[in-house]
Amino acid sequence: MDRFQYIIKLIDDLNEIQDLDLLLEKILEKARLFFNADAGSIYLKEGERLKFSYTQNETLQKRQKSGKLIYSVFSIPIDENSIAGYVAKRYLKYNEKTVLNIPDVYSLPEDLPYRFDRSFDEKSGYRTKSMLVVPLINNRDELIGVLQLINARDETGKVIPFSSSDEPYILNFAKAAAIALEKAQLTRSLILRMINMAALRDPEETAEHVNRVGAYSVEIFEEWARMKGYSEDEIEKKKSILRMAAMVHDVGKVGISDTILKKPGKLTAEEFEIMKAHTYLGARLFLQDPKSEFDIAAAEVALNHHERWDGKGYPGHVDPFTGKPLPGYEEKGRARPKKGEEIPVFGRIVALADVYDALSSKRCYKEPWPEEKVLKEIEKNAGRQFDPSVVEAFFSCLDAIRAIKERYKN
User: Fold this and answer.
1) How many angstroms from the chain centroid is the CA of residue 132?
2) Distance CA 45, CA 308 (A)
3) Considering the entire predicted model, what is its pTM?
4) Is the dihedral of CA 394, 311, 248, 409 positive or negative?
5) What local confidence, expressed as pLDDT, does residue 240 receive?
6) Residues with pLDDT less than 50, the chain
7) Which pLDDT value is given to residue 406?
8) Helix (H, G, I), strand (E, B) or coil at 30
9) For 202-315, where are the alpha helices, taking DSSP H only?
10) How far are the Cα atoms of 177, 380, 390 from residue 384, in angstroms, in the given order?
11) How far is CA 60 from CA 57, 127, 335, in A?
12) Can you state the angle between helices 398-407 and 207-227, rounded to 10 degrees?
């Protein structure tokens, strides 16, 4: 397979990923593999700035030895002072699809308008040398962002300049990536509009909250699935669906009265029974005419994220369309709660992610708990509220969880 054919195949692979964050991860992974780059990053255009949205660095990852690479999100102006800003500005101002192929960023001529910011290298002990930078342009010729690859390597792992022959391929790769990114951004936008609709009813249902719960859920799932012996292919297929399904876990609250949703004090027993209906109301939304695996997963998460490992959760074995107990699952006039592995794993994972975020966040009725207290509460409830193996996976990826919390601040 020649390199252009490989890029065509990549287009199909990228278009299968619907979630924006996971697509960013896959784009960098595939780009680094294709161009044998040690590191890379993606900036996405937000207004007049470029947001540093995703990065990978194999050298730093190996030094870290465990978990995913932790990084901070920031933004830079779209101007000609930075390398990424220069590429973006040239396209916006002159419609030029500029490819910067820099052999050594520390040896840039003084007469160039842009400079390399050495602060990351100085903090991390990394040495950035060669860079290949290209704009991400969609089908409507709009700038989506900037892709930059760092430190090309030869067969021995030695850092070398990117070849000039790489330049037409990076343009084609960037085009495919931009098209896939635009579709993922549209999907994310539609989900967030659904969340915003729910937020009109429940002020706690913010974009930051659902993004955190979705991102936490993916990290926990990856750890849990590897512990259980899932293949990497199986994990990849399920991650994108879980990320989006977790974001809409509470969308059923649109069917709950404002007098209950916005009540400042504690709910009465009768009001709490009504509130419980948001689980099957959310599931019903996705099961009325399911068209995809996402619909099935979203219904599963909405229905099950308040079940408990010890069988004391809700709504139990109910028909989502009626809210009534399923045949054979009625106890004392109500549905028997699900217990243990009766609860689908996506529901078990989102249950923990949601509680962690609720305890860690400020609410109208409480201040955020200190992290130590939150972690003790989760540990205490392993085998009671939460699946013990899900709790184990949570603690295994705690550094990544903390980084997500920082990335999606309120």
Assistant:
1) 26
2) 41
3) 0.83
4) negative
5) 87
6) none
7) 87
8) helix
9) 207-227, 232-247, 258-261, 269-275, 278-287, 293-304
10) 44, 8, 12
11) 6, 11, 51
12) 160
Residue type (1 letter), 179: I
Structural domain containing residue 37:
3-183
Strand runs (DSSP E) across 259-408, as ranges?
330-331, 334-335
Q: Which residues of 195-210 are buried (b: 16+ CB within 10 A; e: fewer)?
A: beebbebbebbbbebb
CB 130 within 8 A of CB 159: yes
Does residue 281 share a domain with residue 148?
no
Question: Torsions phi, psi of 98, nearest 5?
Answer: -75, 130
The answer to whether the CB of 83 falls within 8 A of the CB of 116 is yes
The pLDDT of residue 66? 62
- In contact, 252 and 277? CB cutoff 8 Å: yes
Average pLDDT, the chain: 91
pLDDT score recorded for residue 194: 79
Rounded to the nearest 5 percent, the helix, strand and coil shares of the chain are 55, 15, 35
In-domain check, residue 196: no
Give the strand pairing for 75-77 and 100-102: unpaired
In the prediction, which pLDDT does 208 show? 86
CATH of the domain at 70: 3.30.450.40
Q: For position 65, what pLDDT does the model report? A: 66
